[in-house]
Design goal:
The chain is of the alpha/beta class and 143 residues long. The protein is built from 4 helices and 4 strands, in the order βαβαβαβα. Helix content is 38%, strand content 15%.
Length: 143
């Protein structure tokens, strides 16, 4: 019997940099064993940042350019096993809004690379990979 995939929702501020990058990293490293989605607390624009597209393609060969930013309000966070706020500010906003069951909500420390150059995006992608590895190992999900 094949185990159901772990469902993770990544949430950042604008849903154009960190959370779409996290989806790309999750898909590249964990394939079908993990279902990743993303949203933002204040989505911006109609596509991911160009730097996030370039970095995820360069590091993982994954194309995220078709990503469409969306609000966490447009997603049912309760259907996910875990909801990961990409930073403490986003975590606090999600707690205030009470849109995510508290036992499913986690905070990471991924700095927003927007406007800081492509190297900041590479650093964010590497940190996302490291945090995801740690997160999954701590949950003993067998990936």
């Amino acid at each position: 019997m094949i185990a159901a995939p772990i469902k993770i929702l990544f949430v950042c501020y604008g849903n154009i940099c960190r959370s779409p990058m996290a989806v790309g990293v999750a898909r590249a490293l964990h394939g079908d064993t993990l279902q990743a989605a993303s949203a933002g607390i204040a989505p911006v624009g109609d596509r991911p940042s160009e730097e996030s597209v370039i970095v995820i393609r360069a590091l993982y060969g994954i194309d995220i350019r078709d990503h469409k930013p969306r609000s966490v309000a447009a997603v049912d966070p309760g259907r996910f096993d875990f909801v990961i706020a990409m930073d403490l500010y986003v975590y606090e906003k999600l707690m205030e809004a009470a849109v995510v069951p508290e036992d499913k909500l986690y905070a990471w420390d991924i700095d927003d690379p927007l406007g800081r150059g492509v190297e900041a995006y590479f650093a964010a992608a590497e940190k996302i990979r490291d945090r995801l590895d740690q997160f999954l190992a701590n949950r003993s999900v067998g990936l």
